[in-house]
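Example for tutorial group B:
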C-alpha cells in the first residue's frame, strides 16, 4: 500500500484552510485562494499537512525540502529495521571431518552476520534406522557453536530429515 502524497498549492480543493507560517506560528483560518497568495508572496508552497481535520491544516514551506526530509526519515527507519534471514545447511550422518569443519565454519559466519540457521541431517535408505548418528552430529554442532548461537528448536525428525534451528546470541555491535 503506497502512502498518499500531500496536496500542494493548486491541488488543495477546499474553500477554507487553517494556515501555519514558516516558523510554526498559526496565522488562522483563511480562504484557500488567500493562503495561496500569501505563500507565493513569501516564495514558498502551501502544503496540506493534516487533511482529515475541519478545516484542513496547511503549512507554508518549501515542498522540495519537505519531500527530501521525509525520504531521509524513511531511509533512516528502514536502515534501523534488521530483517532476519533463514539460512539452511544440509549434512549427511556419515560426514567427513573436513566437510563438517567447513560447514560448521559457514554456519558460524551466518550466525555472526545475524541470520537464523536451520541445519538438516538428511538420511537416505538404511541410514534412517540409525538416526542416533544424526543426533550425535547435532549435539556436536550445538557444542561447537554455543559461543555464537542458541538452539531454539531442538533436533527433531521431519520426514527423512533431522532438523535443528539456531539463532544468533544477542550481542550489541561496538560502534
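The residue assignment follows.
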Amino acid at each position: 500500500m503506497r502512502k498518499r502524497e500531500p496536496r500542494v498549492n493548486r491541488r488543495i480543493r477546499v474553500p477554507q484552510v487553517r494556515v501555519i507560517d514558516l516558523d510554526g506560528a498559526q496565522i488562522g483560518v483563511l480562504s484557500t485562494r488567500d493562503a495561496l497568495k500569501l505563500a507565493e508572496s513569501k516564495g514558498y508552497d502551501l502544503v496540506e499537512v493534516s487533511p482529515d481535520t475541519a478545516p484542513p491544516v496547511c503549512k507554508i514551506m518549501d515542498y522540495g525540502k519537505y519531500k527530501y526530509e521525509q525520504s531521509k526519515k524513511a531511509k533512516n527507519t528502514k536502515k534501523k529495521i534488521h530483517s532476519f534471514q533463514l539460512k539452511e545447511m544440509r549434512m549427511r550422518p556419515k560426514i567427513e571431518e573436513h566437510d563438517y569443519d567447513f560447514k560448521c565454519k559457514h554456519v558460524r559466519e551466518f550466525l555472526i552476520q545475524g541470520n537464523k540457521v536451520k541445519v538438516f541431517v538428511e538420511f537416505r535408505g538404511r541410514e534412517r534406522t540409525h538416526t542416533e548418528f544424526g543426533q550425535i552430529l547435532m549435539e556436536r554442532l550445538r557444542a561447537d557453536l554455543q559461543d555464537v548461537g542458541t538452539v531454539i528448536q531442538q533436533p527433531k525428525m521431519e520426514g527423512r530429515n533431522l532438523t535443528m534451528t539456531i539463532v544468533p546470541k544477542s550481542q550489541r555491535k561496538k560502534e
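The longest strand covers residues 149-158. Compare this with the pattern of hydrophobic and polar residues in the output above.
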